[in-house]
Specification:
The complex is a heterodimer of chains A (301) and B (326). With 301 residues, chain A is mainly α. Chain A contains 12 helices and no strands. In chain A, helix 5 packs antiparallel against helix 10, helix 10 runs antiparallel to helix 12 and helix 11 packs antiparallel against helix 12. The N terminus of chain A is likely disordered. In chain B, helix 1 runs antiparallel to helix 12. The C terminus of chain B is likely disordered. The chains are: A mainly alpha (301), B mainly alpha (326). Chains A and B meet through helix 6, helix 7, helix 10, helix 11 and helix 12 of A and helix 1, helix 6, helix 7, helix 8 and helix 10 of B.
């Protein structure tokens, strides 16, 4: 019993709780906003995603609403991004497409981060055979040309929202696993981790309570960049007809149609493509800003 | 040196085995196994008896491990399967489509090198200058741009609005081969494919140069009284080219698949276009899996050769440095 109390007294991982959650967040934002572009990207991305989430309140139309009298009408006050071949409002469809993009991005990155973090922790901490097997396995997965692998699996299992999420999540976790493993390898030799082990904590507790919090910075950075990759990959798959299928609008499948229609109505290609580009650009800038503000020794000069 | 090479070779064996196992598993992801699609597509065997006979003919009724071993032994004999469509072997398909892909890749890489090396070096030399900020921001644009979208935009602008370039194919089908025609067809796909490369390479060269500029030998060169120009371009840049070669090696493998989308947009008759058509139109699974396995194997062999070449060139590797990833 006493050893546990000693441990509580030491509060190895938590540290004294003097700062409130809000003030920490404010401190983080101050450091993050020093990178002006990253701060601007974060605000812009929030606007894009909020507009997508609250799409029904932001637009008077629905994505499926057809109006054959207004086929291919050019951008105007009523239709800021014009209309498509069925007279559907491109602005509305782009907003709803943003929901798909956000859902696929967040869900697939969650799969990737959870799997990658747990396996990376285990391999880095335990070492030995589990580590060797994991490393060779990730070597093998990473040797596949990513897009070919994703395209082949999508073609085999068939296109659907769920499949896209699963495929992107299950093909990207090795990158996270290697990152976490590398961090854990160096962290586990540090004094605080040795202390936790000497105190007789279970390996699980050492991993989850002491090592994991210290790997959060690189994981958050990697997660942001993976989100950018997932958004781009979902769009590419849906564009090829291997991702989200119409009539559900996604930025990718809107471009499939645009490939044929853009010669009559160029605006149908501009909105979805521009949004993919903006979203990925914002995510990359944010990832860079997070790297600078969260983790000084990861800082790129 | 030899123990290092031997260790890398031994490490590659389980990776290759795992890779084939994963590919084999993917092949059986399809509902009903690979045979189901065969019958569906050719729509010849309709009855269950016919399907069973077909599965027997292709050995799909044998136990999984037996199928895996026989598939593996086919791979070892250079048989990567053949098309469900017309029976053309995967190797022949790659031989036919490969040159177009490598032409596109080679030209994009040359263009990307020609643009990113000067920008990256200048960015590093004038760190935090206006030029540096501009170049770094533009690099972000390069890595973020969806190539298929910017490809469509390029077709719209340079093919329709201001029609100065051909938008599809590798040459004008009604005319015999001519160099100018080939170059005109290359312009758009090459520029588009080079954009993401320029973005990532510029950043890579900038950070490599910055790292090297702080090395002892650079300080020594400066202390000897060499001009800043000589230090940058002779001492530093030459040492930055080593990591650059490694990066090129990694990029080649990555590009075979990332070029696919550009090939698809511009109807470029390469490996990637064939692959995408096999996936979305022909449902030609042997082509997909054969190409996937072959390109991955080439990736592993390529990185193995790069590591060995690097160990021969750079004696520090032998000492066990650069080994942190095991």
């Amino acid at each position: 019993m006493s050893s546990v109390q000693v441990a509580r007294g030491l509060t190895l991982a938590d540290g004294p709780v003097t700062k409130t959650w809000m003030s920490r967040l404010r401190g983080f934002w101050r450091r993050f906003a020093r990178n002006r572009i990253a701060a601007f990207a974060a605000i812009l991305l929030t606007v894009i995603y909020l507009a997508a989430i609250f799409a029904p309140f932001v637009t008077p139309y629905t994505p499926e609403k057809q109006n054959l009298l207004e086929r291919f009408s050019a951008p105007s006050l009523r239709h800021p991004f014009g209309t498509d071949q069925f007279g559907r409002d491109s602005y509305t469809r782009a907003l709803y497409g943003g929901r798909v993009s956000l859902a696929v991005g967040v869900a697939s990155v969650a799969i990737s981060l959870i799997l990658g973090t747990l396996l990376g922790l285990e391999a880095g901490f335990t070492g030995g055979w589990p580590d060797i097997i994991l490393m060779r396995f990730t070597d093998a997965v990473m040797a596949f040309p990513t897009l070919f692998l994703i395209v082949a699996i999508s073609a085999l299992v068939g296109p659907s929202l769920f499949n896209v999420i699963a495929i992107i999540g299950l093909t990207t976790w090795p990158v996270v696993a290697r990152l976490v493993r590398g961090e854990v390898l160096s962290l586990k030799e540090r004094d605080f981790a040795l202390a936790a082990r000497v105190l007789g904590f279970s390996p699980r507790r050492v991993m989850l309570r002491h090592l994991l919090p210290n790997t959060s910075a690189p994981i958050i950075v990697a997660g942001t960049l993976q989100l950018a990759f997932a958004v781009l990959t979902e769009a590419t798959l849906s564009f090829l007809g291997l991702g989200v299928r119409p009539p559900t609008p996604s930025w990718g499948n809107m471009l499939t149609v645009a490939q044929k229609d853009m010669f009559v109505a160029p605006w149908v290609a501009v909105a979805p493509g521009g949004l993919i580009f903006l979203t990925v650009l914002c995510l990359n800038f944010i990832g860079d800003g997070l790297r600078d503000s969260l983790d000084p020794h990861l800082r790129e000069r | 040196m030899l123990p290092y090479i031997a260790r890398r070779l031994v490490q590659a064996v389980p990776v290759i085995l795992l890779l084939t196992m994963i590919s084999f598993g993917i092949m059986h992801l399809a509902p009903g196994g690979p045979g189901a699609f065969y019958s569906q597509d050719l729509s010849s065997p309709r009855t269950p008896e016919e399907l069973a006979r077909m599965r027997h003919l292709y050995g799909l009724d044998r136990p999984m491990p037996v199928q895996y071993i026989s598939w593996l032994s086919n791979l070892a004999h250079g048989d990567f399967g053949s098309s469900y469509r017309n029976g053309e072997p995967v190797l022949a398909v790659l031989g036919r489509t490969g040159p177009a892909t490598f032409l596109l890749m080679g030209c994009s890489m040359l263009l990307a090198l020609a643009v990113s090396i000067p920008i990256g070096v200048l960015s590093a030399v004038r760190r935090y200058s206006v030029f540096d900020y501009l170049a770094t921001s533009l690099a972000f644009f390069g890595i973020s741009i969806p190539t298929f979208w910017i490809g469509l935009m390029a077709i719209l602008v340079f093919g329709v609005v201001w029609p100065i370039l051909p938008t599809t194919g590798i040459q004008n089908p009604t005319e015999p081969f001519s160099l100018t025609d080939r170059l005109r067809h290359l312009v758009m796909p090459v520029c588009i494919q080079a954009l993401p490369l320029i973005g990532s390479w510029t950043r890579f060269i900038r950070s490599t140069m910055l790292e090297i500029m702080e090395e002892d030998y650079v300080r020594t060169a400066r202390a000897k009284g060499l001009s800043e120009r000589a230090v940058t371009y002779i001492h530093a840049l030459r040492n930055a080219l080593g990591p650059m070669v490694t990066l090129l090696g990694i990029t080649v493998a990555y590009m075979v698949s990332s070029t696919a989308v550009v090939e698809y947009i511009f109807a470029w008759p390469g490996i990637g276009q064939k692959y995408i058509f096999a996936a979305i139109q022909d449902r030609d699974y042997p082509i997909l899996l054969g190409t996937l396995v072959l390109v991955s194997l080439l990736t592993i062999i390529g990185s193995l050769l790069a590591d060995i070449a690097y160990a021969i060139v750079d004696p520090r590797i032998k000492m066990g440095q650069g080994e942190n990833a095991r």
